[in-house]
Amino acid sequence: MYHLAPYQTGLWLAEYLSIRCQLCRVHQSVSQSQLIQDQLIQSPPKESQIVESQYSSNTVNSISGSLPNNHSVVANLRYFFDKRLNSGLLCPHCHHSISWLPKPFQVDMAAGSALSIQAATYYDYPVRQAIRAFKHHEDMTKLPLLLHALRQLPRPHGCHHDNSIIIAMPTTAQRLIKRGFDPVSILSVHLSKHWQIPLWHGVQRIDDTISQQGLTRAERLSNLDNAFALIEKPPSKRLILFDDVATTGASLQALGRTLHCLSGITPINNSSISHKHPLIAYALAHGSQ
Asked: How many whole angstroms separate alpha carbon 116 and alpha carbon 252?
């Protein structure tokens, strides 16, 4: 029997059973009263629907206050969980307090080509604090907020399960042992599920590089020289790079250069969108507003 890891159990509970915002924990992620009001305005309940709702059990009624009553109980429950999944893990107030999808920025790759990096949001409060707690203190209670941010990333146009793969920023064996888990790997699994695009693990990170934190851009680039090695040749598909934080984009730049030099992968830009092996990058957060 398959057993969920503790963080997976907590995430499942937050996703489907908790009605509180994962940031402020005060507001509901779905305002039941507002949904009811909206439904009444759009289509007032018919007499048959009122009669049908009266024979439902109290448990179902407590869940399905905003559900359409012209379906079976099973259909109503399915509708409820679909609404919960699509509504997000933050209340509208907290969601709109965060600036989403800042303008993509580019880093040089080779002569005449650049790697475009799209972040879900800025590396500001509250995402910055959540990322730090998740990465450095293994605080899994921050994961729902990060996944909410992750889901703001639009799937690249034209990319799908059959023609694209996601390459998560690899970590070193030494850092994995020290930290005990790989936060980027966890996030990338959920991005893969959200976009329905598979992960590819054909890149290895070399152990002789130091942490990028606290380094200048020039030092970051120098530190990442020869930091990655290909275990196998990537498939002939679109490659989507992913990292949690792209402060300067140096890590994604170095990873992209490795793929570009060793495999002939071409970064996506206005002139190379039709190339056989396009390359694009995404991050959870970047810079500050």
From this structure: 10
Q: How far are the Cα atoms of 63, 98, 221 from residue 16, in angstroms, in the given order?
A: 11, 23, 42
User: Residue 61 region, left (φ>0) first, then alpha (ψ -120 to 50), else beta?
Assistant: alpha
**Rounded to two decimals, what is the model's pTM?**
0.72
Please say whether the beta carbons of 150 and 189 come within 8 A. Answer: no
Task: State residue 271 phi and psi, 5-degree precision.
Answer: -100, -10
Per-residue pLDDT of the chain (289 residues; tens, 9 = 90+): 456 666 666 676 666 666 678 888 776 565 444 544 544 555 555 544 443 433 333 433 444 444 455 557 777 666 665 555 445 788 888 999 999 999 999 998 877 788 999 999 999 999 999 999 999 888 888 999 999 999 999 999 989 999 999 999 998 888 888 888 899 999 999 999 999 999 999 999 886 655 556 556 555 555 566 788 888 888 878 999 999 999 888 899 989 988 887 655 655 543 343 344 588 999 999 987 7
- Half-sphere exposure of 228 toward its Cβ, with a 13 Å CA cutoff? 25
Mark out the alpha helices in the chain (DSSP H runs): 6-16, 32-42, 47-54, 58-63, 73-87, 92-96, 127-137, 143-150, 173-179, 183-195, 217-223, 250-263
Residue with tokens 């889901």: 151
Of 231, 233, 189, 227, give the one whose Cα is nearest residue 208: 227
Pair of tokens at residue 212 = 């990028």
